[in-house]
Amino acid sequence: MKVRRIGLLTGGGDCPGLNAVIRAVIKTAVNEHDIEVVGIEDGYEGLVLRRSRPLGLEDASGILTVGGTVLGTSNRANPFGYPVERGGEVVFEDRSDDVVAYVRDLGLDALVC
């Protein structure tokens, strides 16, 4: 199976160098392997809430000096225990099936986290 389309997310919170990694993944995927890149916004939360956007070479330009991560991140979005408010209480739901469905809907062959 040839990988044709990958998803890219930055999950678990912010750390130095994330935009350099994003840039490297985009440039390598597009230029060296002719792979389409889809950015998942706000880490695993983007998988649960279905937030993504295509990433091309133009998205890799000028991001090295930008702080944080241009995709956003979350350190509280666990798809296996996702917080949902019900009746004034916060309960935790398993949303992993929704995440798998979204990855399939996006047509991703791989997910880089």
Explain how this protein is built.
- The chain is α/β, with parallel strands linked by helices and 113 residues long.
- The chain has a single domain, classed as Rossmann fold, CATH 3.40.50.
- The chain is 33% helix and 23% strand.
- The strands form two sheets. The protein has a four-stranded mixed sheet with strand order 3-2-1-6. Strands 4-5 form a two-stranded antiparallel sheet.
- The radius of gyration is 15 Å and the shape is flat.
- The two termini are 21 Å apart.
- The mean pLDDT is 95.
Short characterization:
The protein has four helices and six strands, in the order βαβαβαββαβ. The protein has 113 residues and is α/β, with parallel strands linked by helices.
